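go over my protein:
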Amino acid sequence: MPWITNQGLLSYRNNIEQQNLLNQFLRENGVELPGETLGKLYDYADLVVETKQFGNLISAKDSEKFLSRHIADSLVPHIYIDERRKTKDERVFDERDKSYSDSLSSIVYQRSDLSSKKWADMGAGAGCPVFPLAIVMPQVQFYAVEPRNMRVQFMQMAKEKLGLKNLTVVGKRFETSGLTDLDFISCRALSTFENDWERARPALKKGGKFLTLKSYNNVAQLESDPAIILHKYTLPNEEQVYALVTRGNE
């Protein structure tokens, strides 16, 4: 019998509609996750939606679509990680506009050697994207960096309940966290790209990568910058276009 959370919503362990939307999004982008991994994602979603003692972590409206909106969005960096673009001959040719596609489905992903990588998430808030990423990439060491005490307490509790041994919660501002020589730094809708990049760059190792999730309209002007790569995408049942923006520390 499906049980109801204390916010009156169907538990994500039993919310088949939301599960289907998330899994369809992942399949369309070449990702299939084991049942155990998906279960942890559902459990994390329930923790965010149900937990009240740490304040309102998410709006009531977003609580109804946490898998299809927030979990799916958080997993976009996983889809793109360690990417290499196909050569022109390998890439998908679109007969409609006579161009080669840079869409998600036309990119090859290599995730084979991540065991020694360190990844920090700036301004982690309630844990998106860092918790979903830590769940699907257990071989990577993640750091959730967040200065607000209530959010830090929630993430510590969620980490323990989910058994995430590859995640460390750091209750400081990123600039004072002491983290250095990082392979990846991410953030989600934190500030402008320029501000986020300037905060992240000193802690990236040479050859490291900065990744941020933004509304496409807010970063469209960056497409002309050769140092930056934008990957446009949409989320299930969302009209808005988003972008994963990446920049390497050369």
